[in-house]
Request: fold
Amino acid sequence: MKILLKVIYSISLFINFPSALRLRKTIIANFRQKNMLHFFNKKNKSTSILITIDNDQLFINEKNVEFPINKNSIIEYFGEPSKIIGNAIYWQNLGISTNLLSNGLINHLSLHTDHNPMETKSIAEQKPFFKGKVIIDGVEVNKKCFDHVTMRKYEVKHFTYTGKKSPCLISIAYNEIYDKNVYKPELEKNKYEIEKLNEALIEFSDFGFKLAIIQELMYNKNLLKPKFDLFEFVECFEKRHINVEKEGYKPIPEVTQYFKDLPIPKKYAPEITEIYQDGGNDIYTQLLRFGGGCENFWNINNIEDAKHFLNLKKAVLCYAKDNIIDELNHIGIQAEWL
Reply:
């Protein structure tokens, strides 16, 4: 701006001074208007958002919403997203995000109420936070402190980053297992018995890396079968009774072991062109029912397994040791933090 005014002053030496003065005033006025518009565009707009759950019905600003919902429908409520990264959709001016499931639908909302270092390094990058209201059966949720609420059709949970007292995120999710109207076909009892494959397999050295690959092959590309479902697995498991509601606050050993033992055929390696970690990925929500999204159970500790995936060119990570990003970039895989 200072440089521009100096240019105007120089011009004024050669043209009528009043004309240069009017030009200067016009430029300053336009500059201020542009910056004010930028300020209001950055201003938190989520204060106008009212999310209500009443008698198992979800409403956004008094309009009924039925989860699961497609992307175009949710845009009608929040407007065009500010950015889309992989399967993650962000309305940053509202402090709201969500993720597309492998079937292209959306079954949850994430309301960002405070800084989450897993999302961004600085508070300024993540602002504005969600400042709207959440009301459940007539009672407004205290966004800084509340218990998980589980209903027949919806769950409202808070996630707190390690070392913080108040939640950094509130999740409102469709809870299909409580919806008695959902028809579920009879389950094959041997559905999750791992069969020995008579073909070349990938030998993994890092469990976190393997999980990122399973997310791509099982949930994103539908190549690995069966598509793992925690509640189906628990129903089929006969060695002991697994109580998900009590045990789901930490990884269930039998579920973790299933994925450790799961064979990955080498024929699928060329299908991997990118990996994208997010706390809302299907693989992590199956491994940890009531996770906060900030765990380190599945960190990638080394990149030895990258050698199996010659077409892997990009990686967006949130579960990895600090050195992994640099090491992946060093071998030609474009890597960044989520």
Remarks:
- Residues 45 and 94 are 6 Å apart (CA to CA).
- The first strand starts at residue 50 and ends at 54.
- The two ends are 35 Å apart (CA to CA).
